[in-house]
Amino acid sequence: MTRIGIVAELGRETRVAATPATVGQLLGLGYEVVVEKGAGESASFRDEAYAEAGALIVGADEAWGSEVVLRVNPPTEDEIGRLAEGATLIGSLSPGLRPDLVEALAARPITALALDAVPRISRAQSMDVLSSMANIAGYRAVIEAAHEFGRFFTGQVTAAGKVPPAKVLVAGAGVAGLAAIGAASSLGAIVRATDPRPEVADQVKSIGGTYLKVEVAEEMTSTDGYAKATSEAYDARAAEIYSEQARDVDIIITTALIPGRPAPKLLTAKDVAGMKAGSVIVDMAAGQGGNVEGSVAGERVVTSNGVVILGYTDLPARLPAQASQLYGTNMLNLLKLLTKDKDGVLRIDFDDVVQRSVTVVREGEKTWPPPPVQVSAAPVVTTDAATAAESTVAKKKQGLSTAGKAGLFAAGIAVLFAINAVAPAPLPQHFTVLMLSVVVGFYVIGKVHHALHTPLMSVTNAISGIIVVGALLQVTSENPVMQILAAVAVLLASINIFGGFAVTRRMLAMFSRGEKARS
Fold first, then answer.
1. pLDDT tens string 121-180
2. Residue 143 burial (10 A CB sphere; 0-12, 13-18, 19+)
3. Which of 76, 214, 353, 474 is the 20 to 30 Å CA partner of 127?
């Protein structure tokens, strides 16, 4: 049976690579689990909780001597030396930014997997630790800004006067940016957001933000789920927007990062100098050089004009219990992929793109960087291919030809007359009304735009109400078949009514939140 060791983190790190909840599931995969004493204390996970989940509490040397070692942060050289020969280390290794660490790992006969190198494809979302931590960091960035900001986020009208809502600018609408937008919007602030990808505009709007589009000729798209470097024209126009917004807003949260490159500078010292005293900037990219001139990684800086710049690099660790829970779940999902037989044996399959992408070192052999992974929704097509595709779509939209539609219409009429010719009264009359209702309903609903289909559910509730009344009248029929059909009709129509009202109320609530955010 393979032993998994959960080790304690160094310094001010408060997270832990596994929680008591995930330990129980690791045992279900067939592993034996040991936890270094005190490893989860900073995240409020006591040794007793791990022991109750089935783990053994051991010393540091024994935990590091396990066949599989789970870690949050990259190991030091001394910690690499503590790994047993043939061991597997799994953690956030940042191999693209730490070539020295990759070489140090490859110098030992071990295997190293980088949890933060999971490709951004659909089936790997449950292992995407970068998204999990970015989500927490975006939320925490708003909390830190609110702590520094000397006023309400939401607008209020009080007996002492009117309090205007805070204005927040979020630079970058990735996972962290969207989390920040949602948190600031829920607190009642007026939120604006920028991003070079125009497709995120709807996402920003859906959570209460306003998307500030940078009007340039180019369009930014992503083929791997990460942001790309922008052009000079985009940067010039974006700089103007940031300068304008800096003079107007109270809080700025920057999240712009480009994998493998220093963070782009978004706010200059002049922009910061133009902000109002008491304004707050949270530079979430401070650890990679910073988006804001004057920010210092891990520090709180106050400018001469009274602007607070927060360059904290440990935002996820400031919510240790939640961050550990999500990190541990990401780790668990990766181990499930590596232990498909649930026999406690870790197997790496290089034919699997996820397993290949996270493997930095395999049995002492350096395997980083992995082959590129194409994750775009659709490949780029040539002009001829695009034209052919458009032609195919157009043909599909056309459907049947006019002659074909006329033939089906004639056949339908013939079937209607044939049924009416043999059916006893009053079935012909009822059947004719039913067929006409189907035809009219099809053409009426079919001509309505898709966006209006959900509001129409309220209208169909009236029709369903008529069905319920008619079915109730038939429930008292002496014919058992009629009674059963009537009961089914009452049930289905009732479901449609309650569902229609539920969906409509949910939509109205969404519109209400949107209106409050805009006001």
1. 888 999 999 999 999 999 999 999 999 998 999 988 888 889 999 999 999 999 999 999
2. middle
3. 76
